[in-house]
Amino acid sequence: AFAMGIVGIRLQDLARSETQRRLETVAARRKVRAILRGTTDGLIGLDLDGRCIFLNEAGARMLGYSPRDLRGKQVHGLIHHTHQDGSERREGEWLATLSSRSGKTVRILDERLWRKDGSSFPVQLTVSPMTDGLEARGVVLTFTDMTEIRAAQDALRDAVQARDEVLAVVSHDLRNPVGTITAAAELMAEAEIPAARQTENLDIIQRSADRINRLIQDLLDVAQIEAGRLSVRIEALDLSEVIKDAVSQARFQASIKNIQVSSEVSSSLPLVQADRDRILQVLGNLIENAIKFTPEGGSVLVLASPTSGGVSMTVSDTGPGIEPELRDHLFDRFWKGHRSGRRGAGLGLAIVRGILTAHGADVEVETEVGSGSTFSFILSRAD
User: Fold this and answer.
1) What pLDDT shows up at residue 340?
2) Spatial CA neighbour of 249 closest among 235, 261, 239, 265
3) For residue 29, how far is the Cα from the chain centroid?
4) Sequence-ordered list of residues with C-beta below 8 angstroms from that of 239, at least 6 positions apart, any chain
5) Do the beta carbons of residue 122 and residue 146 sit within 8 Å?
6) Shortest CA distance to 46 belongs to which of 145, 129, 132, 144?
7) How buried is residue 28: exposed, middle or buried, by Cβ count under 10 Å (0-12/13-18/19+)?
8) Distance of alpha carbon 114 from alpha carbon 77, whole angstroms
9) pTM given for the model
10) pLDDT greater at residue 174 or residue 371
11) To the nearest whole percent, how much of the chain has pLDDT over 90?
């Protein structure tokens, strides 16, 4: 009886110890699960044959698969099957295979994984061997979604490029008028010249200063457009007077190249909702652009006619037209296409689109090589 009692006590101790171990195991598993749930990185466990053992919640969200979808399945053919260019990725390139064979951690900073819906996303991927202390049991894939980071990097790269473009434009397009002003001023200061010549030099200085001010204002307008802060003062506007002013302002520049600038305005134009100064700026930029690329002896025509809901406006020229491969870049800032030798910073059309967007309108282009170009837009009728 005594012996049986001792055995009973020991069995109870063993049972309590086993229960305690089970409780500790359950607690440890809960902690691991909590960690796996809490991490923002995706985690996939694979056995030696590349089949999924586990998938955490973050990985499931990123890939669009539930743990049940992947459990027991070969993962390579589901999430790593294709290169970004569409070519097939061989299973021998699968990092999990390379890691399990070498027993070393493999890391790649720029990789892509594929979601259940067929889309892909950039990841930073680490593959580490999974062992039980004695032998390899598989690998663990840890991946971080780099979509936002890549977007931030692209935005930073674009910002640096924009800064460089601005510096290039300012240094190039300001150098000429500043040099002209300096030369004219030095000539007036150092030489005895007739009054008529002095007047001519003062006129040169004035035009050069106006050119500088125009460039600076264009740069400010582009900055406001890109920041979404371009201000417009909407009012009921008679476009016939605006068109008359725009054509009148362009005639001096057109006369230098013997280009005829004219307008045809319907007598029944309704009032529109628009900012007078900004629409004058739009017409001025379009007409100036047309004159710039129209050969000597050509013509530029501004048309305005009523349409359903507003007024349709077009600016047409008899220039060389625009090549198809250049049309997608017409409204990019600082872009001059094959005409980089031409005067101007390449901001005019970007400003045109920005102003019209602020008016709830868009600008369209019809062009044919050898037959000129037509830029058109519609402004809404005033209530």
Assistant:
1) 42
2) 261
3) 46
4) 265, 269, 272, 274, 279, 304, 311, 313, 379
5) yes
6) 129
7) exposed
8) 10
9) 0.56
10) 371
11) 24
